[in-house]
């Protein structure tokens, strides 16, 4: 994965904060399946090959009921339209050959879907960004974003960098353009920047079960059900991790804090923000 220097100006900053959420979320690289519609900006622009932090490569989406087969075939067609490499529909015997302890009527085999260590991926992006001339600022909680009305005293740039970003600590940077990407805080940062806070972030947490280590041989790769269009989730699945463990899940429960990854994490402001949203 790399970042083109063409993306950077001579004064480019990346303000990094609340980054933990990225490490807590999914580590699966989906290669254009599931909820990625044709032409979606969410499509992973990655060709098959080595990936920083890469691990197990294999995903089966398994139909266990006849009524799921049309939806599985629709996923297959979507994958073809999105140029997913190596995609195949396989029958019960091939399912068992790939996953000896898995049973199903038909499955979608996506050999280039894999798991990654997202911390390594993010660090690699950071290194590319810095090598291309960017600057990363950490612990920079943004509290205001304004447009300068006149050049600062003694400035040689004039209004070349009119966007002023201030932090909670009173630090300030200026730039010509600003692209916000704040994950769980996207709506709040959007409001600070003068844009709409809609759609609002309502945090949900996924809880997983851990397969006993001595049962790890039961699962070789990612095993997913056929998504049910009535629900916005991918369903209960089996995910091998980079450390060799296997997670089973998740469910989806309302979180009482935006970065509340533990059962009793609570933020009054986040909770009220979620339950009063209409």
UniProtKB/TrEMBL annotation:
<protein>
    <recommendedName>
        <fullName>L-2-hydroxyglutarate dehydrogenase, mitochondrial</fullName>
        <ecNumber>1.1.99.2</ecNumber>
    </recommendedName>
</protein>
<keyword id="KW-0285">Flavoprotein</keyword>
<dbReference type="InterPro" id="IPR036188">
    <property type="entry name" value="FAD/NAD-bd_sf"/>
</dbReference>
<comment type="similarity">
    <text>Belongs to the L2HGDH family.</text>
</comment>
<keyword id="KW-0560">Oxidoreductase</keyword>
<feature type="domain" description="FAD dependent oxidoreductase">
    <location>
        <begin position="60"/>
        <end position="255"/>
    </location>
</feature>
<dbReference type="Pfam" id="PF01266">
    <property type="entry name" value="DAO"/>
</dbReference>
<dbReference type="InterPro" id="IPR006076">
    <property type="entry name" value="FAD-dep_OxRdtase"/>
</dbReference>
<keyword id="KW-0274">FAD</keyword>
């Amino acid at each position: 994965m790399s970042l083109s220097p063409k993306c950077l100006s001579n004064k480019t900053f990346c303000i990094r904060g609340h980054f933990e959420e990225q490490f807590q979320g999914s580590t699966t690289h989906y290669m254009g399946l599931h909820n990625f519609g044709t032409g979606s900006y969410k499509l992973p622009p990655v060709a098959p090959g080595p990936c920083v932090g890469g691990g197990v490569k294999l995903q089966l989406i398994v139909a266990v009921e006849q009524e799921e087969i049309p939806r599985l075939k629709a996923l297959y067609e979507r994958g073809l339209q999105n140029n997913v490499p190596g995609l195949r529909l396989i029958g019960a015997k091939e399912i068992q050959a790939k996953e000896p302890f898995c049973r199903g009527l038909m499955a979608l085999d996506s050999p280039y879907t894999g798991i990654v260590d997202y911390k390594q991926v993010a660090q690699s992006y950071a290194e590319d960004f810095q090598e291309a001339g960017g600057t990363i600022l950490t612990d920079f909680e943004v509290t205001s974003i304004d447009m300068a009305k006149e050049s600062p005293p003694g400035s040689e740039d004039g209004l070349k960098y009119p966007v002023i970003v201030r932090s909670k600590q009173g630090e300030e940077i200026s730039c010509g353009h600003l692209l916000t990407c704040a994950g769980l805080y996207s709506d709040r940062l959007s409001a600070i920047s003068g844009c709409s806070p809609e759609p609002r972030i309502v945090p949900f947490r996924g809880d997983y079960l851990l397969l006993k280590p001595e049962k790890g041989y039961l699962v070789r790769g990612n095993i997913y059900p056929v998504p049910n269009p009535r629900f916005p989730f991918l369903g209960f699945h089996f995910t091998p991790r980079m450390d060799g463990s296997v997670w089973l899940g998740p469910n989806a429960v309302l979180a009482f804090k935006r970065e509340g990854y533990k059962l009793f994490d609570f933020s009054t402001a986040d909770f009220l923000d979620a339950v009063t949203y209409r």
